[in-house]
């Protein structure tokens, strides 16, 4: 009997609890949901104003001397000590001897050939006096001017056919050209500086035996340099000789001014680039120095220039319309390392100046109002 009473009480309590819990759920169902405040990001903006944008091409390259001579020996001999050491860094003026080789043995052979030529002409003089009295005097004058210690003078001009047969038949003409050939080779024992410059490489030292065909060193003019850069083929018809070029060291601590000296007429089939040569003069420049060049290629009308990270992969940019972000299509016409030039962006369009993380079309934004970041015109 007691058990039935306890079960009845528990049943009543369970039903009462269920009713109270149901009423609680009904009451909470009609309570308003909490309002989550919308986050509005503050952005930096610019107002578009189309203008003429100059296209500047950046390229890097190393300097090489415009005037460069690789020194080779065409003869064999002992390298003789000169007035200046043959060492890298040594300066020579135009006309000074860079290298002298011992030519005493060869010089003796040249003198012997010159003496034989002189004797051959002297031997025919009696016959010339008898058979060709009208040309005797000019050959006599030639002999009088003949000096074994000087370069062999040019033979007198032969005036008629008989004189030609007579002189040629005595072997005088062939002997003359043999002597001139020997004299020409004798000059190769002495290498003269073709211009004022500096020795950048020296592969031999005084007293060593120099062989024919051996490389001796390199000689450059340190006052004029050239830089070779590769430019996209799209600028092949735009770049012209004489175009001014701004140059700077890679750390941008020094600036120089140069000009386009040559433009290659062919395009590299592998890289589809064209080679441009820039001439520059400055006392601070050295061969092998790396510089950055900025070439003015062309000008684009009705365009703007913005940071590359503002351009989307879909060739669109974000704009601000009534505090909402939107995207519009644009036409990129030139890319640089940091900037991009765009066309087809209407004047007065408000665009972002800096990228917004997580930006999407329809996003609520607010333009910055402080003095340092107010909307400016971009062009």
Automatic annotation (TrEMBL):
Highest rank taxon of the organism: Bacteria
A GO cellular-component term linked to this record: efflux pump complex
Residue ranges of domain Multidrug resistance protein MdtA-like barrel-sandwich hybrid in the record: 68-216
InterPro entries: MdtA-like_BSH
GO molecular function: efflux transmembrane transporter activity
Name the record gives this protein: Multidrug efflux pump subunit AcrA (Membrane-fusion protein)
């Amino acid at each position: 009997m007691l058990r039935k009473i306890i079960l009845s009480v528990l049943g009543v309590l369970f039903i009462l609890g269920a009713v109270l819990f149901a009423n609680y759920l009904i009451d909470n169902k009609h309570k308003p949901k909490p309002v989550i405040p919308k986050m509005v990001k503050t952005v930096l903006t610019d107002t578009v104003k189309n203008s003429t944008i100059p296209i500047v091409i950046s390229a890097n390259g190393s300097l090489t001397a415009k005037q460069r001579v690789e020194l080779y020996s065409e003869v064999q001999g002992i390298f003789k000590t000169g007035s200046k050491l043959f060492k890298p860094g040594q300066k020579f003026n135009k006309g000074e001897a860079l290298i002298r080789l011992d030519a005493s043995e060869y010089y003796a052979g040249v003198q012997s050939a010159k003496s034989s030529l002189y004797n051959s002409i002297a031997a025919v003089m009696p016959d010339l006096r008898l058979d060709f009295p009208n040309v005797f005097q000019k050959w006599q004058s030639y002999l009088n001017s003949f000096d074994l210690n000087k370069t062999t003078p040019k033979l007198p001009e032969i005036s008629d056919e008989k004189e030609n047969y007579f002189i040629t038949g005595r072997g005088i003409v062939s002997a003359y050209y043999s002597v001139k050939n020997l004299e020409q080779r004798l000059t190769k024992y002495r290498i003269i500086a073709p211009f004022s410059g500096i020795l950048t490489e020296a592969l031999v030292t005084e007293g060593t035996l120099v062989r024919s065909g051996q490389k001796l060193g390199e000689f450059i003019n340190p006052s004029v340099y050239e830089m070779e850069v590769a430019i996209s083929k799209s600028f092949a018809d735009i770049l012209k000789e004489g175009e001014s070029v701004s140059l700077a060291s890679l750390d941008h601590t020094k600036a120089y001014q140069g000009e386009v000296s040559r433009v290659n007429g062919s395009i590299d089939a592998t890289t589809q680039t064209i080679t441009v040569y820039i001439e520059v003069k400055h006392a601070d420049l050295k061969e092998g120095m790396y510089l950055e060049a900025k070439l003015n290629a062309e000008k684009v009308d009705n365009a703007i220039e913005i940071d590359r990270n503002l351009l989307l992969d879909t060739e669109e940019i974000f704009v601000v319309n009534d505090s909402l972000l939107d995207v519009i299509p644009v036409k990129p016409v030139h890319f640089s390392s940091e900037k991009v030039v765009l066309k087809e962006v209407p004047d007065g369009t408000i665009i972002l100046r800096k990228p917004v993380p997580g930006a999407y079309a329809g996003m609520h934004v607010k333009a910055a109002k402080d003095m340092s970041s107010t909307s400016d015109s971009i062009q």
